[in-house]
Design goal:
The chain is built from 9 helices and 5 strands. Helix content is 57%, strand content 10%. It folds into 2 domains: 82 residues, Methyltransferase, Methionine Synthase (B12-binding Domains), Chain A, domain 1; 102 residues, Rossmann fold. With 230 residues, it is α/β, with parallel strands linked by helices. Strand 4, helix 9 and strand 5 form a beta-alpha-beta unit. The chain has a 5-stranded parallel sheet with strand order 2-1-3-4-5, sandwiched between helices. It is globular, with a radius of gyration of 20 Å. Helix 2 packs antiparallel against helix 3, helix 2 packs across helix 4 and helix 2 packs across helix 5.
């Protein structure tokens, strides 16, 4: 029975590989991100580099794949382990392409402070955002993981940030982010810094309704301007 099961799994995998190989290059790369399939990734990236710049591959193809992953996760059609698998493939793809990326000539677009919030050590998504923004003309101050709100706000002031980005994978990190938004209001800094929140446990409704409603209710200053980034 085990032999038959092994043969079936092997046949299924071979069929999936054939189906993937039959796709146009652009669609194939996007599918690799969605499926978390790294076998053959570098060969496809090398072929894509022969056709267009590395940054275009990231912005126009790979990010489209991650957008689909976010939509599938948000609708309950993809579970977290598979999201992380896709993120790892995305990380590998960007790492392969990064030496080929040319810095955008359009520098000085703005400064963003990025940090994984207190108590969270996950930083794949945050670091991808760092690479992509840096190569698109933004100045990125990446504080790393497990950052308390005090360190984030101090860095924002020191570097005269235009935006603050907070990231976290854990469900409890969404609570920390909400507390951080409240802290911005309490310090009367909410009007100075638009906030981008990112992480698998976040939903657009939570960011744009629950968390911002809470900060407005507890502060006389304008509510923190926040957006969700999957």
């Amino acid at each position: 029975m085990e032999l038959f099961e092994g043969a079936t799994a092997k046949s299924l995998k071979a069929g999936q590989a054939e189906e993937l190989a039959a796709l146009p290059l652009d669609e194939r790369l996007k599918r690799r991100i969605i499926d978390g399939e790294k076998n053959g990734l570098e060969a496809d990236l090398e072929a894509a580099l022969a056709e267009r710049p590395a940054l275009d591959i990231v912005n126009e193809t790979l990010l489209d794949g991650m957008k689909v992953v976010g939509e599938l996760f948000g609708s309950g059609q993809m579970q977290l382990p598979f999201v992380l698998q896709s993120a790892e493939v995305m990380k590998g793809a960007v790492a392969y392409l990064e030496p080929h990326m040319e810095k955008s000539d359009d520098e000085g677009k703005g400064t963003i402070v990025l940090a994984t919030v207190r108590g969270d050590v996950h930083d794949i998504g945050k670091n991808l955002v760092d690479i992509i923004l840096s190569n698109n003309g933004y100045n990125v101050v990446n504080l790393g993981i497990k950052q308390p709100v005090s360190a984030i706000l101090e860095a924002a002031e020191e570097h005269k940030a235009d935006v603050i980005g907070m990231s976290g994978l854990l469900v409890k990190s969404t609570v920390i982010m909400k507390e951080n938004l409240q802290e911005l209001n309490q310090r009367k800094m909410a009007a100075d810094y638009p906030v981008i929140l990112g992480g698998a446990a976040l939903t657009r409704a939570y960011v744009e309704q629950d968390s911002t409603r809470s900060t407005r209710a507890k502060s006389a200053t304008p509510g923190t301007r926040s957006r969700v980034c999957g």
